[in-house]
Amino acid sequence: MHTLSRWFGNLSLARKLTAIGVVTSTASLVVACAMLLAYDVSSSHERLGRDAGLLADVVGQNSTAALAFGDARGGSETLGAVAVNNHIVSAGIFLLDGTLFAQYQREGQTSSAPFALGADVLDQHRPWQAFSGSSLLVARPITLKNDVIGMVVVESDLSEIRDRVIHFGSI
């Protein structure tokens, strides 16, 4: 630190002013980039939650008949529609008592998060979502004539957000 102070003291006034301007601009740029990164991560979390929630709502609407008639195979086929989103790891349809009715598991995945979801979440019969260390869990009620007949739970990985941070950092 002492050598830096001596070096700075030996500069001419014009060079000192230039150095102060460069350091101030660099610090401002670093703070601005950090703020943009924080905003991007936050908005990505919101968008991911909204997208997974929308997917869970669609699956819930389309699985009403399968659930009402006890058609587990039809429920599994309906859950298979979540495969269009590469980030969906697993999904499940639950009866009101918490029993797993139908499930989807992305090939090569071993996650069991939706199937180990707490009974307190399923008993609420309302929309719910939570981020954990590496995934997002979304639960939505399945209704028939305004009565809740089950819950659909969707688990999404967070690789999209991680990839965005890495891409942003490489710029």
Give a short synopsis of this structure.
The chain is an alpha+beta fold and about 170 residues long.
Walk me through what this model shows.
This protein has a five-stranded antiparallel sheet. It contains six helices and five strands, in the order H-H-H-H-E-E-H-E-E-E-H. The two termini are 31 Å apart. Helix content is 52%, strand content 23%. It has 171 residues and is of the alpha+beta class. The longest helix is centred in the N-terminal third of the chain and has 50 residues, at 13-62. Strand 4 (135-144) and strand 5 (147-157) form a beta hairpin.
Counting DSSP E segments of at least 2 residues, the number of strands comes to 5
N-C termini distance: 31 Å
- Taking all Cα atoms into account, the compactness measure Rg is 25 Å
Task: Give helix % range.
Answer: 40-55%
Features:
171 residues, 52% helix, five-stranded antiparallel β-sheet, 23% strand
List the helices and strands and how they pair.
Blueprint: H1 2-9, H2 13-62, H3 64-68, H4 72-79, E1 88-95, E2 100-105, H5 119-124, E3 128-131, E4 135-144, E5 147-157, H6 159-170
Antiparallel strand pairs: 1-2, 1-5, 3-4, 4-5
Helix pairs in contact: 2-6
